[in-house]
Amino acid sequence: MKKYMLGLLSIPLVASAGMFGLTADAAEKYGKPDKVTEWVFQPCFDSSDAGWANGVVPWIEAVEKATEGSIKFKLQPSGAITSGSEAFSATSAGLLDVTACWASVYGGDMPEGMLAFGMAMGADNYRDAWAAMFGDPKYKIGDLVQKASNDRNLQWVGWSSQGPNAMFTKFPVHKYEDLAGKKMRAGGPQALFHEAVGGAPVAMGGGDIYTAVKLGTVDGTYWDTGGIDDMAFHEVIQYAIMPGWCPAQHQEIFLNLDKWKALNQWQRDRINDVFMSTYFETSRMHAVGVKDALKVLEKSGGTVINMSEDEVKRMRQLAIEKVWPKVAEKSELTAEGVKLWKEFLQDIGEL
Questions:
Q1: Are strands 183-185 and 154-169 parallel, antiparallel or unpaired?
Q2: Antiparallel, parallel or unpaired: β 239-256 and 98-101
Q3: Total structural domains in the chain?
């Protein structure tokens, strides 16, 4: 089976220069500007989320260092300025300067975000995900997401794999039929998958999940694996099902496009320079968090179920037949992205 190694993935982002707006103004002085730009950064979540310390903070530190302090951030938790569900649209409108979230989940603001969030049973790991989105010039699905972002007055400036988005349940799951009829907290693309396996998706805010599982209102939840201990889910669920419905869930960072254009070319180049390095740094950090979270679950008496290789293939085939077409019908860009994702999995031997 063909797998992408880091050497291949190190194809520089300069290959996507047009995507990131690298058009220099010859009359502009190239270099660090005299003034300091200050941005308000409010993610769709607060500091309890694994994406805070393992995604947002490293990116902020990298940008401030790369721009030699000419860009500074004021990091605020969800709800400080606007609600988490409104942070994406608020950044588009300029109420916020920067946000981090999952564009495919919150309000359906940008269906193309599903291509970057992670397809149902798509890439097995963050290295393969990078290859499909940016590293291999044959696919470059990331260009589609950037176009959709620009169309919404946003610039996509950061990305991080949070590891598997899996099922955390009160019941064992060894084959996808075991999910049939089960009520699971699921939003956006998670709900598309849960419906495809015959389950009953239930929409609710993250803060309500613990109580809902404890009281039996739902039978479990879909969540990023590295965040289950942060949410104390190990206290109310018995099983973690690996690799989950999305083996490599991702989180994106978006900047208001007007604020991006207001930077000089040197600053834009420096932000682009750290896109790949912070992706691999934060993705590795999340991978460590996944291992630690599963250990917490097992220590509390829970069980990690690893689906068989044959079952993973069955589930991937089901996802491609029933879930991916629903993503493709969202827009012309998602249709193009789904086609490229399918080609990528075929080329690496997963289909």
A1: unpaired
A2: antiparallel
A3: 1
Q: Are residues 164 and 146 in contact, defined by beta-carbon separation less than 8 angstroms?
A: no
Residue where the block lists tokens 């999995």: 345
The CB density around residue 261, as the number of other CB atoms within 10 Å, is 10
Residue type at 150 in one-letter notation: N
pLDDT at residue 15 in the model: 40
Residue 11 placed within a domain: no
User: Is residue 27 situated within a structural domain?
Assistant: no
Calpha distance 145→155 (Å, rounded)? 10
Asked if residue 121 lies in contact with residue 245, where contact means CB atoms within 8 angstroms, the answer is: yes
Q: Residue 264 above 80 pLDDT?
A: yes
28 assigned to some structural domain? no
Beta-carbon neighbour count of residue 137 at 10 Å? 9
Angle at 60 between CA 63 and CA 136, to 5 degrees: 65
> Taking residues 108-128, what's their average pLDDT?
94
Candidates 278, 244, 221, 254; CA nearest to 103 is 254
Residues 6+ apart with CB under 8 A from 141: 115, 116, 132, 133, 337, 340, 341, 344
Average pLDDT for 100-125: 88
Can you give the residue range of the structural domain that contains 280? Answer: 36-347
Measured in residues, the chain has a length of 351
Looking at residue 339, which CATH number applies to its domain?
3.40.190.170
The reply to whether 246 falls in a domain is yes
* pLDDT classification of 106: cutoffs 50, 70, 90: low
